[in-house]
């Protein structure tokens, strides 16, 4: 008879009752005060976490716990509900989206020779790829271990050891991951973790609220991916990485012709990275704001600011990509449109401003590519 025996079903049943009664009546019936510190965020609503946990205890002990019978803090209620996949937060106005992106931006990664380690980012990308395809959220340890080890070997820093138990445990204690059958897994330090994981063979994966967000909200998923790529993998073949974790083509898009006629026949490159950037922008042109809607869905083009290939040698990275409509893509490629470092869009033929470049969180343009474009576009 303990809070740690709660299961997700008991909590969901209690949330239903809370919804039916309304907050005041629910708290009054079970003798709880309004929560000041910790809230469950579920389906866009906020619930007093201590009251929910105490009442859900009926499912374990036959009766609801009274408020005075247990502590409602992070160490008890927060941890228990967190392991059951709920988002528990101190912020009354927190949403899963903000909470998730905040966490992705504040990963506590070790540093090696001045560069952040990639174990946690790779583990997250692997899980995001699974979520994008709605694959099983919880994965047995032997599979998790093999797949993340391979990713670390392939895309980690030089000399990184493939030790996926560290990122899995680190992300668990950080509130993004869960080992649902183990509420007190070891910390991610020392030599204990691997032995513990091999002995216990836990299933593990993203917390349910994270997984749900990642399967349902492609835009937030793209924001997280773009952030991870630009922060941790600046010198990695990002297309190869995205393809490797199954994030190469998650969006159903109209098939592109390999070439289409313009004044110069030009190849439209459409790879994993360009699809990611287009998804971040909802396929809306960053210059004119138009979203072309085709029968099969919205259409935009990924435009490299500094072209790839000889003689330009531009990089295939988010900072060198724009999401443009076909017209603005041609105008930009041919140098009729240029973009200043402050992201003002200029019609070079008339000198008029066309307004600021539209931007979205998670996609920053690197000014070095804009400068290259201003200096060379239209001359090749
Ligand atoms: Zn446009």
Automatic annotation (TrEMBL):
ScoMcrA-like N-terminal head domain span: 4-89
Keywords of the record: Endonuclease, Hydrolase, Nuclease
Domain HNH nuclease: 285-339
Positions in coiled-coil regions: none
CDD domains listed in its UniProt record: HNHc
InterPro entries per record: DNA-SBD_ScoMcrA (IPR058813), HNH_nuc (IPR003615), ScoMcrA_N (IPR058807)
Gene Ontology molecular function: any one: endonuclease activity
Source organism, top-level taxon: Bacteria
Occurrences of domain ScoMcrA-like DNA sulfur-binding (ranges): 98-248
Name of this chain's protein: HNH endonuclease
Taxonomic source organism: Nonomuraea insulae
Classification lineage: Bacteria, Bacillati, Actinomycetota, Actinomycetes, Streptosporangiales
